[in-house]
Every structure is written in C-alpha cells, then in structure tokens.
Amino acid sequence: MKKYTIYGMGAALVDTEIQVQDAELTAMGVDKGLMTLVDEARQAELLGLLQGHLVKASHASGGSAGNSMIAAAQFGVPTYMTCKVADDADGAIYVRDLEQAGVAHNMARRPQGTTGKCLVLISPDAERSMNTFLGISETLSVHELDPAALADSEYLYIEGYLVTSDTGRAAAIRARELAEAAGVKTVLSFSDPGMVEFFREGLQAMIGTQVDLVFCNRDEALCWGDTDDLNTAMERLKPIARRFVVTCGAAGALAWDGVTRHDIPPHRVQAVDSNGAGDMFAGAFLYAIGRGEDYATAGRFASLAAGRVVANYGPRLPAADYPALRAEFFGD
Question: Which of 50, 132, 160, 183 shows its CA 20 to 30 Å from the CA of 145?
Fold first, then answer.
C-alpha cells in the first residue's frame, strides 16, 4: 500500500470572489469565463474598480490542484500537495486550509515574497472569470518536489496551469518522469482553454509520450483536437492519454476508461457559481478510482459532487458536506 493516493502539484492561490454583472466585465475589459494572467498592478486596478463590491467578497484558498487535493482528502483518501506560498498572511491562510483538510505538504518554511491571488468574478449566469496574479507561485520549481512522497503515491496529478511558468513546467515534466520511473500513474488536467490554445507545445512536453489520465472540459477537448466535433476530439485525445474524462457542464460528462466510453449524466441544480466545479469533479473522480471504483461509478459521483459545488458560492463545500456526500452516494 502506498502512503498517499494522490500527489498533486499546482499553483497556490488565495481567491477573492466577487459577484458582478456582465456589463461590468465588459467595462473592465475582463474576458468572461476564462483565466487571465495579470500582474499585481492590474489586479489592484480591478479591485479598485470593484471597491463597492468588496463588502460582499468572500475569500478562500484556491488553485486548481489544491482544490482537488482538498476534495479528495475530505472524501477520505490521503493526499499530498506540492505548491509554493510566501511567508505572508495569505500564505498562512493557504497552509492552514491544507492542514485542516488533512492534506500533507512540505511548506513548513516559506520564503519571503507575495502569495499568489486570484480575483474570481461571478456573473449572474454562474460563470466565473478569473484574473490571476501568480506571485511567488510562478517560481515553483523542481526544488519544491518531494520525490519520496511522489514515489509513495498511487497517482500524480498535474495542474495544466503550470505550463505558463518556465520553472513550473520543468517541475511538472520532472515529476512526470519520476512518477513513470516509480510506477506511479500520471494524471494531467488541461485547466483552461487558454492553456491549450496558447501553450500547446508546453502541455505536450508535460504529457511526454502519453499520460494515464487527462481531465478536460468540452472546449479544451475541441481545442486540443482542432475540431468542432466532440467525437473527433475524443479520438485525438487517445494518442496522448490512455484514459480521459471530458466534462460538458450542464450536459454531464464523458469518460473513456481505455476500453469503453461512459456517458455520465448531469445532476440538475440551480447553478450560482461555477468556480471550482472542474476541480471538485477531478478530486471526487480521483477519490473514487482511488478506492477502487470503475470509471462509470467515479463519473457519477464526481458529477454529483461538482453539482453541489456550483449550487453554492466558493470553490469548495463545507467540511461536513464531504463525508455526508460520500455516505449519500456510496453508503459508507
């Protein structure tokens, strides 16, 4: 038995969520529904323009892989997170949230700098538009890897956002190489359509010859396949991924387990905030296959969990909801 079910790596960010109108996104020049990398000055400018909204803002530790690792840990499997935060108030918040969720890490000593922040703007249709200042997270490198913990894990989960950083991309490539050498299954999330469109070569380097599992949404799959037909896109995912899951929002998801395609039905909810939905899906899915479930069952559980997230504000659920959801679905 391995010590950890999942070893995750990605950007560590503290989210500030603010509800806005579509007209405000347009006025501020924010690309709706996408993740946009910004510098600290641009993020401060946006916060200034949204000053009147800040009384309604909510704050939480975020980052795609971090959200997924917290979800998997809260559902009940041991996880480990490699990321980078600074010795500041936001860094302390991030580490505290990991520890409260039971996620292991190696951030006992934190360097000087600024912890990454993500301004998440939520539109009335529940779409999230992210403006991310990576801060010290942009310098995540091979030095933050824990090879022993990685080798003692069943799965390596790499967040696709790492492709935007030279050192982060190199760390992801090295982690994948270490995982392959140790017989650890490799998993990659495409993270955002912009990562596929603008950083395809870097993603391919992170993938190497082929990974065991890819998570992507419909737009990312179509972009990777350079097509407007989802079936064609799925065929073009097979050379890079032995298995994959394509989430399709309100239409559910599609899972390929290497042999069979599974159509995963959606859970109908009144969506208020899509932030964290894909992260929850990945974390819940990895939890389920980590406990031995097949892809069809894992997909149904992940769809249920993601539906619960979009019906609430914030990227995660209250801590007590995870065991309750597990019991509701699995009966344990």
Answer: 132
